[in-house]
Amino acid sequence: MICGACLSMHWSGGNSLIQQCAEPGKRGRLMGAYSTFTLGLAHFTALIAGWTAEHFGVGSALMFASAGMFVGACIYLFKSRKLDDTCEGD
Predict the structure, then answer these.
(1) Which one of 2, 12, 67, 70 has the lowest number of neighbouring Cβ atoms within 10 Å?
(2) Can you give the residue range of the structural domain that contains 75?
(3) Is 77 helix (H, G, I), strand (E, B) or coil?
(4) Distance CA 62, CA 65 (A)
C-alpha cells in the first residue's frame, strides 16, 4: 500500500512539475524523456525486484521497493515546497 501511494505521488507529481515548469517549446521533448525513464525503465526495475525476491524473499523485495519509493516521495515533497509560482527555488 505504501509503495503504491508513493508511486502514484511520484507519477502525478513529476508529471505536474514538468508540465508546469517546462518552457512551452520544450515541454513535449521533456515529457517524452520523462515517459521513457518512468515507463521504459520499469522492465529493468522488475528484473531487480525479481532477483531480490528470489534471493531474499518477497517480503524483503516489497520492503526494499517501498523504502525506495518512500525516500523518493519525501525528496519530492521537500523539493517541491521550495518552488514558487515561477518554478524557481528560494
Answers:
(1) 12
(2) 2-81
(3) helix
(4) 5
